[in-house]
Design brief:
Helix content: 25-40%
Oligomer: single chain
CATH architecture: 3-Layer(aba) Sandwich
Number of helices: 4
Distance between the termini: 11 Å
Largest sheet: 6 strands, mixed
Strand order of the largest sheet: 3-4-2-1-5-6
Shape: globular
Radius of gyration: 14 Å
Strand content: 15-25%
Order of helices and strands: EHEEEHHEHE
CATH class: Alpha Beta
Structural class: alpha/beta
C-alpha cells in the first residue's frame, strides 16, 4: 500500500523538535508500506531525502531564506506576527497543491495532517475527506 503524508512541516533531521510524533508514525508505517511525505522546505532542509525508509519531498513557496510560515514556531504565530507571512500564504498553498498533485496521484491512502494539508489534497482526494484526516481511495 502507498501512503501519502501531507504536512505543513516535518522533522528536518533526527531528533528535531518539529512534529516528532509524525515522523514516528511514518517510520512505523514504512516498515510494511511505501510512505511518501510532502512538506514545506526550510532554510536547512534538502528538497528530497529518504530517512527511515520514508521518502520526503519538500517544496519551496518563496525565496528560501525568506520563507517564514513554517519552522519558525508555527504557521498561526508567523501569520499573526508578519506581513511577509501573510503574503506567502497563497504561494504556500499553491506550491503545496502542485507538489501533492505531482507526486500523490497514485497513493492509496492520504493523511492530511492539518487543514492546509487537506486543501492541498483536494485535487487528488475523493469527494469528501473523513473527519480523521485520513482519505482512503
Amino acid at each position: 500500500m502507498k501512503i501519502l503524508f501531507l504536512a505543513t512541516s516535518y522533522p528536518r533531521f533526527k531528533d528535531d523538535w518539529v512534529l516528532p510524533s509524525l515522523e514516528v508514525e511514518a517510520k512505523e508505517l514504512a516498515k510494511k508500506n511505501e510512505v511518501l511525505v510532502i512538506s514545506s522546505a526550510g532554510t536547512d532542509t534538502k528538497n528530497y531525502e529518504i530517512r527511515n525508509n520514508v521518502k520526503i519531498i519538500r517544496f519551496n513557496y518563496f525565496i528560501k531564506k525568506y520563507q517564514t510560515l513554517t519552522y519558525t514556531g508555527g504557521m498561526l504565530t508567523a501569520f499573526q506576527k508578519s506581513l511577509l507571512s501573510k503574503i506567502q500564504i497563497p504561494l504556500f498553498l499553491l506550491m503545496f497543491t502542485l507538489k501533492t498533485f505531482r507526486y500523490g496521484k497514485d497513493c492509496d491512502v492520504i493523511h492530511a495532517h492539518w487543514t492546509p494539508s487537506v486543501i492541498a489534497a483536494i485535487p487528488i482526494g475523493p469527494d469528501t475527506p473523513s473527519e480523521t484526516g485520513l482519505i482512503s481511495r
